[in-house]
Amino acid sequence: MRRKIVVGNWKMNNTIAESEALATELLAVLGENFSGCDVGIAPTYVALEATGRIVEGSDIQLVAQNCHYENDGAFTGEVSARMLLAAGCSAVIIGHSERRQYFGETNVTVNLRVKKALSEGLNVILCVGETLAERESGVTDAVISSQVREGLAGISDISSIVVAYEPVWAIGTGKTASSAQAEEVHLHIRTLIAELYGDKPAGVLRIQYGGSVKPSNAAELFSMPNIDGGLIGGASLNATDFAAIVKAASA
Ligand code: PGA
């Protein structure tokens, strides 16, 4: 039985003070009832350390939204994996579709980042997902396959990786993939991982769904056999909604 994992991706929202307030509220709302699943929050880089101090000692993990593939150097505007580790992060989201769409990330740069994060000891949430045009032209499986294969190229141990399936057309749009649509792609990912790594790693790999997950649809999505939690954007900015989703995953 895979332990579910729910992570709030705060994206480019909240100042340091607002992030501290949201984390404080989240701890209060969650109480002790979330021990049934792993929980993480991903504030902006500038708020990581302060937010980390709020959740320190709790079961909420501190997650970053991206990292660079070098340790240091002339890479203006970038943050490295070792810096995230020093700031208290245990995991990092890599390859989010917003990075791919707006900031030129490719499967090659995603792969470099994943390898660096793993080598520094961070857990990785590797995001994959098709656009609406790709879904409508029937190439969803092919797109997901190449994102998974190329994102994981050269990586022999996937035990510190979680894959997040996030259909681009469902992110921030209010449109959620139906639980059957999501399950179909999750199964496709698990089958591909079994081909690449064998049945055992495929059986323990956690695959999160992301894209307009809300308290009203979380339980149904999480009840699917290959959906092992969620990567939550908009609803993670509200402590009550995020806590409800965490509880749905803990049930
Ligand atoms: P959303 O974002 O929940 O606002 O759709 C999900 C994500 O981008 O991780």
Molecular structure report:
There is one protein chain. It is built from eleven helices and eight strands. The chain is of the alpha/beta class. The protein has an eight-stranded parallel β-barrel with strand order 1-2-3-4-5-6-7-8, surrounded by six helices. Helix 10 runs parallel beside helix 11 (239-250). The longest helix has 19 residues, at 179-197. The chain is globular. It binds 2-phosphoglycolic acid. 2-phosphoglycolic acid (PGA) is lined by residues 9, 166, 171-172, 210-213, 231-235.
Overall number of strands: 8
Rg from Cα: 17 Å
Low-confidence stretches: none
- Describe the sheet with the most strands: 8 strands, parallel, barrel
- List each distinct ligand once: 2-phosphoglycolic acid
Summarize the structure in short.
The protein is an alpha/beta fold. Helices cover 44% and strands 16% of the residues.
